[in-house]
Amino acid sequence: MEEDGIPNHLQISMIRKLTKNDWQEWREIRLEALKKSPDSFLSSFEEEAKTSDNTWAEQLENSIKFGYFINAKIVGCCGLSVEKATKISHTGTLWGMYVKNEARAGGVGLALVNFTKNYAKKSQVKHLYLGCNAENHNAVKLYKKCGFKVYGTRPDYTKIGSKFYDDLLMMCEL
Ligand SMILES: CC(C)(COP(=O)(O)OP(=O)(O)OC[C@H]1O[C@@H](n2cnc3c(N)ncnc32)[C@H](O)[C@@H]1OP(=O)(O)O)[C@@H](O)C(=O)NCCC(=O)NCCS
Q: Which in 21, 49, 131, 143 has the greatest CB count within 10 A?
């Protein structure tokens, strides 16, 4: 994957937790994700496009989101929420996974899931969950490759336009 004419061997790639200073990049990639892959997320572009600048920054202060950067430009993201209540504090949820079209099929998604798993494990998470549109075969394949197993289905969980989609419940033991 060559970016800006910079040969692959000179590109700098990194994954890091986003901070409030990244709010413009976070807004850009999140809104692109919702617009270009409406079937992949529970939220919609129309809903989140109304979010104020302050709220985008606050979201990064108050939750865990990761960005995959190539030459300082964000090309992929995903979120992790860890439950606070004591009885379920060993559980977390991976959500909001998205890789820009031009960066796909190069291992970015795989790296983001594995990074999230490691971060979650260090945060004492034992069971990492996620939900995925049952028709999103590429994502299901990615998650299975990273050790997630399907443990249930929520029938007709999302309705997009007039079409209903099943949602697969997946879990990975860390
Ligand atoms: C799903 C998505 C995150 C994959 O990102 P990616 O960076 O292209 O994935 P990777 O290159 O790391 O691929 C890792 C594995 O995922 C699976 N996979 C990903 N894209 C695939 C495709 N187009 N066809 C088949 N398998 C695919 C494969 O198992 C692949 O491993 P392999 O190449 O050894 O077969 C990306 O396509 C995307 O952002 N899609 C739109 C948003 C979305 O669906 N998000 C998930 C919400 S639950």
A: 143
